[in-house]
Amino acid sequence: MIPLRERIKAQHSWFLSGQTHSLRARRQALSTLDRFLRAYREPLSASIHVVLGRSEDETWQTELVPIHAEIARCRRRLAAWMRPRRRLVWHHGRLCSYETTREPQGVIAVFGNAAWPLRYTLLPAVDALAAGNCVVLKPAPGQQAFSEILSAVIAEAFPASYVTVVDGDDQLAERLAAEALSHIVMTGNLVSAGRIMRIASRRLTPLTLQLGGKNPVIVCRDADLDLAARSILHAKRINCGQDCLAPDYCLVDEAIMEAFLDRLSWHLRYSTTADSLHDPSYQPALDQEQYIRLRELLPSGRIVWGGRSNDQTRQIELTVLDRVDYNSPIMRQEVFGPILPVLGFDSLIGQVSRLNLLPHPLVAAVFTKRQEDWKLVSKALMTGQVCLNSLPASLPLAPSHGAPAPAGHGQYLGYEGFHRFTYEKTLVRDLRFLERRRRGPQAADWYES
After folding, report:
1. Pair 147, 118: CB distance under 8 Å
2. Which of 85, 110, 115 has its CA nearest to residue 99?
3. What is the per-residue pLDDT across 168-194, written as a single tens digit (0 to 9) for each?
4. What are the start-end ranges of the E strands in 26-104?
5. Least C-beta-crowded within 10 Å: which of 3, 47, 236, 359?
6. Is this model's pTM higher than 0.85 or not?
7. Are 348 and 357 in contact (CB under 8 A)?
8. Can you tell me the distance from the alpha carbon of 236 to that of 224, in angstroms, rounded to the nearest whole number?
9. How far apart are CA 335 and CA 196, in angstroms?
10. CATH number of 216-394: 3.40.309.10, 1.20.120.530, 2.60.120.280, 3.90.550.10?
């Protein structure tokens, strides 16, 4: 096993050799990744089924399809992104030519996420490769079966000096963050991100963080309740609610609270299996610690639907709670699971003002038919993304992820990812020789006269 520091040094040497900089090399790297992911689709999906219990079809739809879509987008637009921008500037009596290019940063480290092992490990890697960098992938700890398959795939597809996988616990993650990296990308929780950020600050290593938070869904009194209930439950079922983009809680106008709870219960009754806790396709909690934490949150309110759990399989039934307030235990932390607390509000303006005093979420959604309510929420609420009458789970892959702190820091995907993992270099040329050719004889004639 090559020591970690030697791996990083080898990647810096590979990068400085210039083998990753050309448009052809970047497109070839993206094509190679796309080809190997398709070839090893079944082993990768099977390994995720082992560590998470997720079906292979769901892994294909929620993790691999977005990665292939990102690869195709980067390959299609990469030439335009790399094209220099030129302009003429009159600077202190001189005519200058400014040419701006985006240059790769160097070695990018990607810290994976336990809930989405492939998606949030390889999506940033795609953008980093498109930007012309070398990449170090650090999968989430405790998922040995997946890490072994990913390591084998990457080792067969790329030289270790170009793209490599390092597998280990949190101590290895801290050691990696302390190395001479050009950029760090991380999807995770606030505690882990704070620890990595403190270590990276010693070298002033820039970071891109996607941390999620308590994402609210606002249901106004004129909303389509069936549409709202279907959308919320669909988003909450994906990965069993263990997603940084999943709705965390609902804020419902008091005038329609009972009607909304009735629609939620109706859709749950007629859209779920009779015994989801013994359904192999129903995904369990990530680990025992996560399962215990979610179990302890169930008494935070009155159970309207669900509430059952299975200790052997770590499965928790999709549960709806009401009679919850902001002081309840479930409202003091991110749920990150199949529990949906429902709170009431009287004034939309007052509720938006209160939300802005809380830690800002990554995404928010509002269900309404009134344009005034939509404009109020979209303009006043501090969040990275606002959805109207829908949720991110039912929308195409967003062009970027960004949010105010502490939900995130920076953004990637598409051009934002290319921009994030490059730096701007400006080439300046003095064009005084053009001035002499054009103005010199005229000035001489003026002096002679």
Report:
1. no
2. 85
3. 888 999 999 999 999 999 988 888 889
4. 85-91, 94-104
5. 3
6. yes
7. no
8. 18
9. 22
10. 3.40.309.10
